[in-house]
Design brief:
By secondary structure, the protein is α/β, with parallel strands linked by helices. Helix content is 35%, strand content 18%. It folds into 2 domains: 185 residues, Rossmann fold (3-Layer(aba) Sandwich); 146 residues, Phosphofructokinase domain (Rossmann fold, 3-Layer(aba) Sandwich), CATH 3.40.50. The chain contains 12 helices and 13 strands. The strands form 4 sheets. Strands 3-2-1-6-7 form a 5-stranded mixed sheet, with helices on both faces. It has a 4-stranded parallel sheet with strand order 9-10-8-11, sandwiched between helices. A two-stranded antiparallel sheet has the order 4-5. Strand 4 and strand 5 form a beta hairpin. The longest helix has 22 residues. The structure holds 6-O-phosphono-beta-D-fructofuranose. The site of 6-O-phosphono-beta-D-fructofuranose has 12 residues, from loops. The site of 6-O-phosphono-beta-D-fructofuranose (F6P) has 12 residues, from loops.
Length: 367
Amino acid sequence: MSVKRIGIFTGGGDCPGLNPVIRAVVLKARASGIEVLGIEDATSGLIDLDYRSPHGNRWLEPRDVEEIVGKGGTILGTSNKSDPFRFVVEHDGKREEQDVSDRLVENCAKLGLDGLISVGGDGSMRIAQRLIDKGLRIVGVPKTIDQDLGATDYTFGFNTAVEAATDAIDRLQDTAESHDRVMILELMGRDAGWISLHAAIAGAVHVCLLPEIPYRIERVVQAIRARRAKGKPYSIVVVAEGARPAAGEASYEGPRELGKMRRLFGAGYRLAAALEPHLDVEVRVTVLGHLQRGGSPTQFDRVLGTRFGVAAVDAVLAGKWGQMVALRTPDVVLVPIAQAIAAPHLVPANDPVLKAARDVGIVFGDE
Ligand code: F6P
């Protein structure tokens, strides 16, 4: 069956590079005679056809995407609480999670969509796979600053996030050195330490604490004291938001909210509180937060996003549904979505980047 009409949506947290994907999909699809419906706020515009946000479900033409390659965020809007399998609805005056996936499938038929392009991270690809199991035709495009999706060398957004983190470290270095302080920088990444690991090397930090390597506070204290003893009274410590002490859990803000994942919060301040009693220098904390997610995509993320968008439409044209585009340097290939979500992509103990970091003296709080 030839494809006449597809929908595209961006799901989960936004990330730099989404707009280059949308642009490439629209340009390539329109040139191939396919209409493209931009679906608003992840799957929200498919779950409820009357749903209206400032982004708006709309048919996209090349003129709509001409100027967006260097723009962060997503012109379609996104959401990390529009999982159709646990959608939050009001029922008898109470909020509860409901499976509204059948309605989403019916709405795709009403809109005459022959297939969908789902641009998202780990969570969005899991949802995509469940929708595929219900009969929808979907091609996946992997995005996330966290770099925690398997099956692709890189997701776009990661490079821009590491740039932002490195810039923050460079700035902290100046002021830490001037005031002889210990500066803690908390970075995003959920359960994956990739942003922290890469930024730690690029910014030449002294201590880096990752979710994959539980830390001992004595080891961190020892590293900071050893620097003081060598005439370097300041230190820069990067801590991933999902990092945890050897005898503890990651830091969360309260219980999980309906329709959302549990929110990581407080790793940096917890570390500062644990360090302060052992040090006679000031400890300050910076939480970089969403500054890592915003901003213009780097050229790497613009190119990768564009290549992924083009490859996704190629997959649609070839009828390769259920596949996710992936970078296997230097090629963009297709892998089954099911394979991409089989296991999270975390920093392994034998990772070569981790080895390089250890070899240039970065302390990870374990050894
Ligand atoms: O997955 C991307 C990410 O930025 C994570 O690194 C972070 O834990 C989470 O999203 C934050 O989500 P929110 O914007 O909902 O606070």
